Fold this sequence. Notes:
By secondary structure, the chain is α+β, with helices and mostly antiparallel strands.
Amino acid sequence: MRSRAASFELAPADPSSADAQYCLGHYFDELAARFRGGFDRNRDAAADVTDLALPEGYLLIARLSGRAVGCAGLRALAPGVGELKRMWVAPAARGMGIGRSFLRELEAEARRRGLRALRLDTNESLSEALQLYRSCGYREIARFNDNPYAHYWFEKVLA
């Protein structure tokens, strides 16, 4: 499935692909730079991205003029519940609606998979992400995982 909006395209990708590895590498680098105290993939049990591979998972890559500029993934969390993971948009591509498009596409995929709700967690330093999730209907919930870097947990019930 492909989605077009403005001049970017979203398409599924394998987490081991070059574009996915490029985006995920920049994602983890940005976390290390922005999180108070840095980011260590070994402390985050969810840092393994193999669970974003088809058929169990789902990873989208955003491309702008054919160049990878973002990623976002979906994985199963519990029966009927999915989790959004590893959403990142390159700084030069922010403000174009890519994050909202990721959420729409991943929510649609979750519905196709029969999921009734999506959850996610995020760090307090990611203010843009917090604003995006809230504006897209995600509501704060109690902690649902042991991510040492998370300060907020969200859920959206899918209609």
